[in-house]
Specification:
This protein is of the alpha+beta class. Helices cover 20% and strands 31% of the residues.
Length: 192
C-alpha cells in the first residue's frame, strides 16, 4: 500500500538526519505507527531509533549507580536490545556525531554519568534508547518503494517530544493538510 496512493513529499530521499513515518497500516509490531530518526544511511545499511516507543525503564534500572527517575529509556528498535544509545543536543557535554543540525548521536557515557551526578543536564535535551532499528544494504530502499514509509525532514519538536503517544499523529499532521486525515485512521481498517 503506497500511503493510500498519495503523492509523497518532494524531500523523500533517504539520508542521515531524515525522519521515517510508518504508513498507517504497517502491520509489523516493531514499527506500527512508528516515527524513526535515521542516524545512518549508506552503502552498508541504515540505523535509526524509534522515537515513540516507551519502556518502563529508567537509566537507573540499567545503571543503578546513576539513579535518576527523570531519564526514561525508550525502545529504539528490535536490534541489539542489550545496547544503550543516546540522542542529545549538548555536544559540548557529551560529544557524539551530528546527525542533524544541533542533534547528536552517541557520546561519552562517562560524561553522562558526571553530568547526572552534578545535575548538569536537561532531560528535555537527551533521549536514551535500548536497541535500535537496523536495515541491511538496500532493505530500507526496498521498503520505501513498497510504500511502508514516508521520508521527511526531522522536526526537533517531535524528536524531543515528551508526549510520545502522539508523535506519530503529529508527524503525519506536519506533512500538511493533504495527509492530516491519516492521523485519525484506525490501525486496523476493518475496525472503522
Amino acid at each position: 500500500m503506497d500511503f493510500l496512493n498519495l503523492q509523497k513529499p518532494t524531500n523523500a530521499a533517504l539520508a542521515t538526519g531524515k525522519m521515517l513515518i510508518a504508513e498507517p497500516f504497517l502491520a509489523d509490531p516493531n514499527f506500527a505507527r512508528s516515527v524513526i530518526l535515521l542516524c545512518e544511511h549508506g552503502e552498508e545499511g541504515s540505523v535509526g531509533f524509534v522515537l515513540n516507543r516507551s519502556t518502563e525503564l529508567t537509566l537507573g534500572d540499567l545503571l543503578p549507580e546513576l539513579y535518576t527517575p527523570l531519564l526514561k529509556v525508550f525502545q529504539g528498535g528490535p536490534v541489539q536490545l542489550d545496547t544503550l544509545h543516546m540522542l542529545h543536543r549538548t555536544p559540548s557535554t557529551f560529544g557524539g556525531n551530528e546527525v542533524f543540525p544541533g542533534v547528536f548521536w552517541g557520546g561519552s557515557y562517562e560524561a553522562l554519568q558526571e553530568a547526572i551526578l552534578n545535575n548538569e543536564y536537561q532531560p528535555i535535551d537527551l533521549r536514551l534508547f535500548v536497541g535500535y532499528a537496523g536495515w541491511s544494504p538496500g532493505q530500507l530502499d526496498k521498503e520505501l518503494k513498497e510504500g511502508a514509509w514516508i521520508v521527511t525532514d526531522l522536526s526537533e519538536d517531535i524528536l524531543f517530544e515528551t508526549d510520545i503517544e502522539n508523535i506519530w499523529k503529529e508527524a503525519i499532521k506536519a506533512l500538511g493538510d493533504k495527509y492530516a486525515y491519516l492521523a485519525n485512521l484506525p490501525l486496523n481498517p476493518q475496525m472503522n
